[in-house]
């Protein structure tokens, strides 16, 4: 269960620090911050004592595409109602779904005032929603803590020691030593396949809207866990169908 926490445009560096602390509490250590309007590392660190290892690994990138390099599956944390057919899981169900998965999974959390943009949610194969009795809007660090702890509990239930040690997948070979038959395709390499599917279905006047087709195709491809070779072969098949 190699999990990356991705914060999209966090507005307050103190919330980034609080997220880092929540991650440390739950055994997560891979944090990516996308396009923060203003980031003060000192204010962030003030909220996260003894979390230097998380900050040392943290990446700050300009776009969500940059954050998703090497990621094979995407999950959106959002309280908004879905418009398409993405599975909606609570944190415990998400933990059970990911516990035996060696794919790199990114969980996206949106900005404090508006959450994730619809187009970012549509890029994800599934949605994690934290049940609440009334007010659904949570502080981003609270949301990360609840989701992170559910992932930790899933690991413990499947035999990991309940010692606060880092949550991670089984030991992996360096991708530089893997062949295309072995390297898992990341979500960015799947986008051209999605484009091909949409174009083919448009050519035969398939009745579903293009955005719904994109959401469905992305989810299916991410869950398939395809290798780079398989993606290349599929693109070749789709090109032949197009001809």
Describe the structure concisely.
The chain has 243 residues and is α/β, with parallel strands linked by helices. Helix content is 44%, strand content 12%.
Structure in words:
The protein has 243 residues and is of the alpha/beta class. The protein has 2 domains: 3-157, Alpha/beta knot; 175-242. It has 10 helices and 7 strands. The protein has helices at 13-25, 41-46, 52-57, 64-67, 91-98, 118-122, 140-157, 187-203, 210-224, 228-242; strands at residues 3-8, 31-34, 59-61, 73-77, 88-89, 105-109, 126-128. It has a 7-stranded parallel β-sheet with strand order 3-2-1-6-4-7-5. Strand 1, helix 1 and strand 2 form a beta-alpha-beta unit. The longest helix has 18 residues, at 140-157. It is globular and about 60 Å long. The N and C termini lie far apart (40 Å). Mean pLDDT is 88; it is low at 164-175.
Shape: globular
For this structure, the CATH topology of the largest domain is Alpha/beta knot
The CATH superfamily of the largest domain bears the name SPOUT methyltransferase, trefoil knot domain
Range of helix content: 40-55%
Question: Cα-atom Rg, whole angstroms?
Answer: 18 Å
Keywords:
Alpha/beta knot; 44% helix; 7-stranded parallel β-sheet; 243 residues
SSE blueprint and pairings:
Layout: E1 3-8, H1 13-25, E2 31-34, H2 41-46, H3 52-57, E3 59-61, H4 64-67, E4 73-77, E5 88-89, H5 91-98, E6 105-109, H6 118-122, E7 126-128, H7 140-157, H8 187-203, H9 210-224, H10 228-242
Parallel strand pairs: 1-2, 1-6, 2-3, 4-6, 4-7, 5-7
Helix pairs in contact: 1-7, 5-7, 8-9, 8-10
């Amino acid at each position: 269960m190699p999990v990356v926490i991705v914060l999209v445009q966090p507005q307050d560096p103190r919330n980034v620090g609080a997220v880092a602390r929540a991650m440390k509490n739950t055994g997560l250590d891979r944090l990516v911050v996308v396009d923060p309007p203003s980031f003060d590392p000192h204010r962030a660190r003030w909220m996260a004592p003894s979390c230097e290892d998380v900050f040392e690994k943290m990446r700050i990138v300009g776009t969500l595409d940059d954050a998703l390099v090497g990621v094979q599956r995407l999950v959106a944390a959002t309280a908004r109602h879905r418009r398409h057919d993405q599975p909606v899981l609570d944190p415990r169900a998400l933990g059970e779904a990911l516990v035996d998965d060696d794919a790199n999974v990114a969980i996206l959390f949106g900005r404090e005032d508006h959450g994730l943009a619809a187009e970012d949610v549509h890029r994800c194969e599934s949605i994690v929603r934290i049940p609440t009795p009334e007010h659904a809007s949570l502080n981003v660090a609270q949301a990360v803590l609840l989701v992170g702890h559910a992932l930790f509990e899933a690991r413990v239930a499947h035999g990991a020691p309940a010692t606060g040690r880092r949550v991670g997948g089984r030991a992996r070979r360096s991708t530089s030593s893997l062949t295309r038959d072995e390297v898992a395709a990341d979500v960015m390499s799947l986008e051209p396949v999605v484009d091909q599917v949409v174009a083919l279905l448009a050519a035969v006047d398939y009745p579903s809207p293009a955005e719904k087709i994109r959401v469905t195709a992305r989810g299916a491809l991410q869950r398939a866990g395809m290798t780079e070779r398989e993606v290349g072969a599929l693109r070749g098949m789709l090109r032949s169908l197009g001809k």
